Amino acid sequence: MPSGEGEATVVTKGSARRSDETTEVWRQIGDLLVRGQAQTSARFDRLEGDVAVIKTDVTELKTDVAELKTDVASLREQVDRLELASERREARVDAQFEQLRTFISRSLRKGS
Predict the structure, then answer these.
(1) How many Å apart are CA 100 and CA 106, to the nearest integer?
(2) Burial call 56-71: b when 16+ CB within 10 Å, e when fewer
(3) For 36, what's the count of Cα atoms within 13 Å in the CB-facing half-sphere?
């Protein structure tokens, strides 16, 4: 007789139970994989949202920095003008002191 003909497969309660247990384990593994994938997807969604917020914040910061650079340039111009005005004022005061010294010196010579 050729192999497999007339042979019956015997299923025992033990092998059927093991088959059911194996099926349950694989079902649990599938559930865990699906749940893990859902959690990973949710995390990526949150990360994408966080990245979008960070990009917006960076754009705002770049705008703020550009405004600050403009303000600093303007302030530097003002400081330069004030320094120049101060130097001119100092030169006028020095000239007036020199005139006063000369006047005092002449007055003292005349009085002597």
Answers:
(1) 10
(2) eeeeeeeeeeeeeeee
(3) 6
Residue 108 is given by DSSP the state H
What does the alpha-carbon distance between residue 112 and residue 32 come to, in Å, rounded to a whole number? Answer: 113
62 SS3 class:
helix
- Looking up tokens 């002449």 gives 106
Model confidence over 59-97: pLDDT tens digits? 999 999 999 999 999 999 999 999 999 999 999 999 999
State pTM to two decimals: 0.49
Torsion of CA 77, 82, 88, 94, to 10 degrees: -150
- Rounded distance, CA 25 to CA 31, Å? 10
Geometric angle at alpha carbon 66, from 61 and 72, rounded to 5°: 120
| SS3 category, 9 | coil
CA–CA separation, 77 and 99 (whole Å): 33
